[in-house]
């Protein structure tokens, strides 16, 4: 059983007899408390989607929920749901757009390395690969000779995600994005 300080975003934990997915974690250190970090976690019930905000002490023990991660690929959008297909047994996983709104910005039909998080038979979240390749839909014109400069400009990708890119990158370029830091890594190998 991990301590509250060891829990990461998108982890599934058992809390009050329910399975919760941790969506956000804020660490705070109240003044006057010797070594007493607090972890405020925003969690969502995997069954009914209910939101719970709870604060845990760093040393508090939490129980990880029984979950599996299945390799999957994005298939199509059906109204408010994104449908992913299991790469091994072709099971379709339906996920509400709101539940995966952050991850959707990194996903298109070509995205490889996606994992659907399944808790007690219910798909609840998507684990992204460490990097994805996406195409720039719109950015300011590239500046000749700017490759050596460290200046950046905003670029809107085909998924709607906006990242800062070097000035020599142009519209239509395929780039590699770090999904954890939401940062430009390099041009993608075409």
Give the DSSP E fraction (strand runs of 2 or more residues): over 45%
Largest beta sheet, briefly?
5 strands, antiparallel
Question: What's the number of extended β-strand segments?
Answer: 15
Shape: flat
* Rg result: 19 Å
Helix count, DSSP H or I runs of 4 or more residues: 1
Total number of distinct structural domains:
3
CATH class categorisation of the largest domain: Mainly Beta
CATH architecture of the largest domain: Roll
Strand order of the largest sheet: 4-3-2-1-5
Helix content: under 10%
Overall mean pLDDT stands at 86
Low-confidence stretches: none
H/E element string? EEEEEEEEHEEEEEEE
Helix-strand makeup class: mainly beta
Distance between the termini: 44 Å
Q: Indicate the CATH topology of the largest domain.
A: SH3 type barrels
Protein name: Elongation factor P-like protein
GO molecular function, one term: translation elongation factor activity
GO cellular component, one term: cytosol
Keywords: Elongation factor, Protein biosynthesis
What do these coordinates show?
The protein is an all-beta fold and 190 residues long. The protein folds into three domains: 4-64, Roll (SH3 type barrels), CATH 2.30.30.30; 67-127, Nucleic acid-binding proteins (OB fold (Dihydrolipoamide Acetyltransferase, E2P), Beta Barrel), CATH 2.40.50; 131-187, OB fold (Dihydrolipoamide Acetyltransferase, E2P) (Beta Barrel). The chain has one helix and 15 strands; from the N terminus they run ββββββββαβββββββ. The strands form three sheets. Strands 4-3-2-1-5 form a five-stranded antiparallel sheet, with no helix packed on it. The chain has a five-stranded antiparallel sheet with strand order 8-7-6-9-10, with no helix packed on it. The radius of gyration is 19 Å and the shape is flat. The model has no long low-confidence stretch (mean pLDDT 86).
């Amino acid at each position: 059983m991990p301590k509250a300080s060891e829990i990461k975003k998108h982890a599934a934990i058992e809390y009050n007899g329910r399975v919760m997915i941790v969506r956000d974690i804020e660490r705070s250190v109240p003044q006057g408390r010797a070594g007493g970090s607090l972890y405020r976690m925003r969690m969502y019930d995997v069954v009914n989607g209910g939101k719970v905000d709870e604060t845990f002490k760093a040393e508090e023990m939490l129980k990880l929920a029984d979950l599996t991660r299945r390799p999957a690929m994005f298939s199509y959008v059906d109204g408010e749901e994104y449908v992913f297909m299991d790469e091994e047994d072709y099971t379709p996983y339906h996920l509400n757009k709101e539940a995966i709104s952050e991850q959707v910005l990194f996903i298109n039909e070509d995205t490889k390395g996606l994992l659907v998080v399944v808790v007690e038979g219910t798909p609840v979240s998507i684990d992204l690969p460490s990097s994805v390749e996406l195409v720039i839909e719109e950015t300011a014109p590239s500046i000749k000779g700017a490759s050596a400069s460290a200046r950046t400009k905003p670029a809107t990708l085909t998924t709607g995600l906006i990242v800062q890119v070097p000035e020599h990158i142009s519209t239509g370029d395929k780039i590699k994005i770090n999904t954890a830091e939401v940062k430009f890594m390099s041009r993608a190998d075409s």
